[in-house]
TrEMBL record:
This is Protein translocase subunit SecA. It is found in: Cell membrane; Cytoplasm; Membrane. GO terms for biological process: intracellular protein transmembrane transport; protein import; protein targeting; protein transport by the Sec complex. It comes from Streptomonospora mangrovi. Residues 412-579 form the Helicase C-terminal domain. It catalyses: ATP + H2O + cellular proteinSide 1 = ADP + phosphate + cellular proteinSide 2. Its EC number is 7.4.2.8. GO terms for cellular component: cell envelope Sec protein transport complex; cytosol; plasma membrane. It is a peripheral membrane protein. It holds the Pfam family SecA_SW.
Length: 770
């Protein structure tokens, strides 16, 4: 092994790889003998590894890697590199393997998954989207087959039967959201046979930082149909006429919008001289706030797109459209009113789960990604995971230029377009990373105006994007892409067939340009990592302006620089300012993650109590026993009429209904409580303590209350002529459809917060006049 690689094996703060690397020689030594085996003999060798429990001892680890390597060579015509085997061993030990782009994480992950599966564990390989789940499962299927391991995948379209069958395989590939929603839906079943997800064993997470850190800020929420909200066209129309900064102000981080005093006056006047803060009519203010939030904070083509007459959300951390996802409460309808499309059904939150709770269900967790070290502390804090930095198979020779800073956005764009024209003239392929869909389209238009034709990727279709990005290394190609569009797909120099590779290598390989730095350096690195795979030549550079949101919102001061004629700022302290702004932004994101987690910890405890109780009702007849105890006469009568089994069934359904109903209401209470907490924050009390102080007593008596309601319903239940009890006649109904929500830490500025803003304003002016 090269000296440079050896030096990398003992990176501070990361898992020590030396114990693994010591086994590489022994693994290689097994090769000649294994090559002589027939296919079925090789499968038998793999099966022999199943004669012991986890963890693998050193001898078995050598055998597993050697057998796995030989199986991959035969099944995929790819002989795993030593560094990939280091990755496999780190995964089997429950670590996050940091492996750069193009190092072959898919194969390393599959070998580790097979290793777990051979020892009798059920493995869930979690991907960021359905396309990758399916692609990887199908791609690795021949390898699994040689190793005698059953593999399957799940997608959004999978039916419950298909899901059940897929989860029954040894290794199941699924996107995190599909898994999350399956878990949530399983918690609502009224018959055990309807469950799809088995007990969790091993989670192997692809793109681990995106899933565990980026997606963890947004809980997965399952909602059920309730009544339909009316489109509030009047409000949508009214807020459209308001003027930014005169009638409303947006917080620096773009999460809240508030009416100014002038705005309040204008709205009150428009509505015929009403008082928005009238104690007797509190219904108008929330409507104004919703419409304002929809109008100002949610931007078309950034947060959502309008397609086929529907508002479809873009998942920000993933830059793609989410089917069946909505905003909570009236916000969805407010956006629909803003866009003048038909209002869709609204719903109420049935239950939610954070990515963290989802992943922590698994006794063993591991994963891989190109960028883990930057979030090593978070992975440790939230998931008890350590990072193993796997050296590249071939040294990285990409040239990273860093940041070019400009005074204005316009100057930044001019400079980038000029650079694109210059580089493109040589035929060198260019990949430009933008912040969002709208920016991609504007930039593409600008490039086209300058005679530079490009392909745009934006949150449309994963499979299609994979095909496009695969060609981004073609001679003369210009590709514009949002941050993670088309991820997980290799960019080969000279096109996907590498026909033109030599010519592109001569030009310096792929040239990656960032149109602005991202909210975290990790995301910058992900973009950069698109170039320079497997020792390929390549380069990267970021164009930034002082007006970029990242800098404008997070830098302590944005004045006092000296720019050159074209707007370029070369003062090193200003370049440092950009890094600083990014660190501030990273800190904010971490705080959001921490908050999501903190608030959810208590909710998780309460949910645990409900779920345990629910389980006993579902599987052990607890509801029937309780109702028999609470309503003995009615119970006996009904048994007489329809028999014990049917009464037990009805008792189960009635009890589950009231447990679930109660939990839904409690969820709504907690959400409201959390919003209101900000008011008390003014009193310098810790909002989380305040939250817990109220959430705990509110839960007290939860189970007793559900039980009492179940008894009330049970007393009303009647036996029908067909010998069954029709529970729907006594109001026991399940939501007719469910869908998933996208929630933000702070969905929208509530009426309460606007009141706070007003109180603060009053106090402020009071002081100045005193
Ligand atoms: N041992 C190997 N020998 C030859 N080719 C390999 C080997 N391992 C992986 N590859 C090839 O390398 C390419 C990159 O693999 P893969 O997509 O798994 O990389 P990755 O690390 O997941 O990259 P990304 O960060 O883009 O997801 C694939 O075309 C794969 O077939």
């Amino acid at each position: 092994m090269a000296e440079s690689v050896r030096r990398l094996l003992g990176r501070p703060g990361a898992v020590d790889l030396r114990p693994y690397s010591k086994l590489l020689e022994a693994i290689e030594a097994r090769e000649p003998e294994l090559r002589e085996l027939s296919d079925s003999e090789l499968t038998e060798k793999a099966a022999e590894l199943g004669n012991a429990e986890l963890p693998y001892d050193r001898g078995d680890l050598v055998e597993l890697c050697a057998v796995g390597r030989e199986a991959a060579r035969r099944a995929l015509d790819e002989r795993p590199y030593d560094v990939q085997l280091l990755g496999v061993m780190a995964l089997l030990d429950g670590h996050i393997a940091e492996m750069a782009t193009g190092e072959g994480k898919t194969l390393a992950g599959a070998l580790a998954a097979a290793g777990f599966a051979l020892r009798g564990q059920r493995v869930h390989v979690l991907s960021v989207n359905d396309y990758l789940a399916r692609r990887d499962a199908e791609w690795m299927a021949p390898l699994y087959e040689r190793l005698g391991v059953a593999v399957a995948w799940i997608s959004e379209e999978s039916t419950p039967e298909q899901r059940r069958a897929a989860y029954a395989a040894d290794v199941t590939y699924a996107s995190v959201s599909e898994l999350g929603f399956d878990v949530l839906r399983d918690r609502m079943v009224t018959d055990i046979a309807d469950r799809v997800v088995p007990e969790p064993n091993i989670a192997l997470i692809d793109e681990a930082d995106s899933v565990l850190v980026d997606e963890a800020r947004v809980p997965l929420v399952l909602a059920g149909a309730a009544e339909t909200t009316e489109a509030d066209l009047e409000m949508a129309d009214l807020v459209r006429r308001l003027t930014p900064r005169v009638h409303y102000e947006v917080d620096v981080d773009g999460r809240n919008v508030q009416l100014t005093d002038a705005g309040i006056d204008a709205v009150e006047k428009e509505l015929g001289g009403i008082d928005l803060y009238d104690e007797h009519d509190t219904s108008v203010l929330p409507r104004v706030n919703l419409a304002l939030h929809a109008h100002v904070l949610l931007q078309r083509d950034v947060h959502y797109v309008v397609r086929d007459g529907e508002v479809r959300l873009i998942n920000e951390s993933r830059g793609r459209i989410a089917l069946l996802q909505r905003w909570p409460d009236g916000l969805q309808a407010a956006v629909e009113a803003k866009e003048k499309v038909a209002v869709s059904e609204t719903g109420e939150v049935l239950d939610s789960i954070t990515v963290q709770s989802l992943v922590l269900r698994y006794p063993t967790r591991c994963g891989m990604t190109g960028t883990a070290m930057a979030v090593a502390e978070q992975l440790r804090e939230f998931y008890e995971l350590e990072v193993a930095v796997i050296p590249p198979n071939k040294p990285n020779v990409r040239e990273d230029e860093g940041t070019r800073l400009y005074a204005t956005r316009e100057e930044k764009e001019d400079a980038l377009v000029e650079e694109v024209a210059e580089v493109h003239a040589t035929g060198r392929p260019i990949l430009i990373g933008t912040q969002d869909v709208a920016e991609s389209e504007l930039l593409a238009k600008r490039l086209a105006d300058d005679g530079l034709e490009c392909v745009v990727l934006n949150a449309k279709n994963d499979a299609e994007e994979a095909g496009i990005i695969a060609e981004a290394g073609t001679h003369g190609a210009i590709t514009v892409s949002t941050q993670m569009a088309g991820r997980g797909t290799d960019i080969r120099l000279g096109g996907s067939d590498m026909a033109d590779r030599d010519r592109v290598v001569d030009k310096g390989g792929l040239y990656v340009m960032g149109f602005g730095r991202y909210p975290s350096s990790r995301l910058d690195d992900q973009l950069r990592g698109r170039a320079g795979r497997q020792g390929d030549p390549g380069a990267s550079v970021f164009f930034v302006s002082v007006e970029d949101d990242l800098v404008a919102n997070n830098a302590p001061q944005t004045r006092g620089y000296e720019a050159e004629g074209d707007g370029a700022i070369t003062d090193p302290s200003w370049l440092e300012m950009v890094d600083h702004a990014q660190r501030v932004s990273e800190g904010n994101l971490l705080e959001v993650h921490r908050n999501t987690w903190r608030y959810n910890q208590l909710i998780d405890v309460q949910r645990g109590v409900v779920l345990e109780h629910r389980e006993a009702v579902l599987t052990d007849g607890l509801g029937d026993r309780q109702l028999k105890h609470d309503c003995p006469e009615r119970h006996a009568e009904l048994v007489e009429e329809v028999g014990e089994e049917e009464v037990a069934r009805a008792a189960r359904l009635i009890t589950l209904y009231h447990l679930d109903r109660g939990w839904t209401d409690h969820n709504a209470f907690l959400a409201e409580l959390r919003e209101g907490i900000h008011l008390r924050f003014l009193g310098r009390r810790d909002p989380l303590d305040e939250f817990n102080r109220d959430a705990v007593p509110a839960f007290k008596g939860f189970l007793d209350e559900a039980r009492a309601r179940a008894a009330e319903t049970f007393l009303e239940a009647e036996a029908g002529e067909d010998g069954t009890i029709d529970v729907s006649a006594v109001g026991v109904k399940r939501p007719s459809m469910t869908w998933t929500y996208m929630v933000h830490d702070h969905p929208f500025s509530s009426a309460l917060e606007t009141v706070v803003g007003r109180i603060k304003g009053t106090v402020g002016s009071g002081e100045s006049t005193a």
